[in-house]
Specification:
This protein is an all-alpha fold. It contains 14 helices and no strands. Helix 5 (about 150-180) packs across helix 12, helix 8 packs antiparallel against helix 13 (about 405-420) and helix 10 (about 280-305) packs across helix 12 (about 335-400). The chain starts with 10 loop residues before the first helix and ends with a helix.
Amino acid sequence: MSRNGAPTHTPAFRNRRTVNWLSLGLTYSAMYMARYNLSFANASLSETYGWKAKEVGAIITSSLLVYGLSAMFNGPIVDRIGGRRAMLLGAAGAAVCNVLFALGSTWEVFSDAALLLGWFAGMWSLNCYFQSFSAVSLIKVNAAWFHVRERGVFSGVFGSMIQLGRAGIYAIAPLLLDRHGWTSLFYVGAAVVAVFWVFAFVFVRDTPEHAGHAALDVQDATSGDREPVNVGYLLRKILLNRVTLAIAVAEFCTGVLRHGFEQWFPRYMKDGLGMQLQSPVFQKGAAAIVIAGILGALSAGTLSDWLFKQRRAPMAFVGYLLSIASLFVVWKVRDESWIVAAFVVNSFGISVVHSMLSGTASMDFGGKRAAGTAAGIFDGMQYVGGAATGVGIGALVDRFTWGAWAPSMISFAVIGAVLMWLLRHARPKGAAAH
């Protein structure tokens, strides 16, 4: 055992686990590119088809709502079929939907703008159905490979890896928009996902046993359970637990905070601040936002393991506080440099919360046997909350201008912070018992 109580592993096990989580994490990262490309096409869709922010927001709302509900429904399915199969299914579907989304703009049958809006909303919703397998699948696989005392650090590593997908689309989107138009964002996103689908197919395995190693006792909330893994067992583990229910409510708040920011900030910088996406200020700001997200995930995971002794809520509480402060700056300060700095801090805070709740708490409190169900409910609630930011923020901006954007998210961050303070002592049963 190591100093913090985590098990020591053979070099062969560590090497095989590294191959597993790198392949899985990079596939998930690629799917981020095929999800966040829409935020960069947001303003272009309005300019091309004469749509208001609320109409583009309808695409965001419908797709995030589908993602959220699908993640809840798919969680028990992933617990039954395994994370590898589910990830391959999700990545393949996401790649196809990105291509079909872009192709719709070239088909004469959608010459009417209203029909085209329906196609975009429907196809992006289908994309988000397949995308909803991604986080659930990753968490399901990792729950079998990582002991509870290792999960904070490695969830931080994974949280930083998925930021690479954001970094990729942030880096190339302005260039693609300028030279090839908005449809190129979706063709490139699909191509990247297809490449990493191959990596996942070849290298990812659900459990150490499937890769030829001994089973790992991860000592989480389902360690020692012998009850059959059926729907009743999975739902009892999550829905009859006050901690998981509180996390689910907090995740709804996280969804409003996260997607209210991530889906709209490029358009805010363009329309609200008058900044061109190709400008050096935007490019540096976008890079800093991604770097802050990486650092947020890494620091949250490490501190939750080593400083807070596997308690995830205290770090999430800190993340919410950072978001509250940064959004207040965006709301009240009109200086461009201060706003960009606040965006960076907000990205750090959101990443702390996301890595702790969606990435780590779902493994801890769902346990290896119910990690998919827990992740589905937590991630699903996050995206249901995010769905409100599509039409909701679009309508607010259309009516009250961009001054209403930041305050619309602050109250949800406050609710999340209060819930995390109340859960500050919570740990999974298995971690305490061992």
